Amino acid sequence: MKAKKAIMFLGLGLIMSLGAMTAASQEKPSDNMQIVVEKIHADKKLLVAENMQLTEAEAKAFWPVYKQYQDELFLLRARSVRLIKDYAGTYENMNNNTAKKLLDEYMTIEALGPKLRQAYLPKLRKVLPEVKVLRYFQIENKIQAALIYELAANIPLVKVD
Fold it and tell me: Which residues contact 143 (CB under 8 A, 6 or more apart)?
């Protein structure tokens, strides 16, 4: 139950932070955005650490792989944020050409997620027992589900004539 609440809290925090990134970037891009990014990473790392039950040896091997994966995952999520900003900017006056571009970008982003996970699966298997690799992917999946839920609840359907 504790993990469930923590995952929901982190998911909501990530969504709010992603929104804050765009607002912060309008003030002092390098300072404010860096603070938000560091907070996201620290909160998520804490959640993962609390739920993975790593031995000292596992932790030593796991955290560098985790950092690489998170760096790449962050780039993918930043791309999603850009897509949402593009959608918001064209939402009121959507046309077929813009809709196609947005949808194509969405499909590309969606296809990259499984490829990224597949690329890191062997790396994680090298440093963790299979049960803990599964647990890690479950944690990531729960965070992703919370993000998707929050986005779906807050992004309106496109208007059609």
Answer: 7, 10, 11, 14, 44, 47
Cα–Cα distance for residue pair 12/7, rounded to 1 Å: 9
Q: List pLDDT tens digits, range 84-141.
A: 999 999 989 999 999 999 999 999 999 999 999 999 999 999 999 999 999 999 999 9
pLDDT tens-digit profile of 38-79? 787 789 999 999 999 999 999 999 999 999 999 999 999 999
**Amino acid identity, position 113:** G
> Measured between alpha carbons, how far is residue 71 from residues 22, 27, 28, 92, 93 in Å?
18, 24, 22, 33, 34
| One-letter amino acid of 123 | K
Residues 6+ apart with CB under 8 A from 64: none
pTM: predicted TM-score of the whole model, two decimal places: 0.77
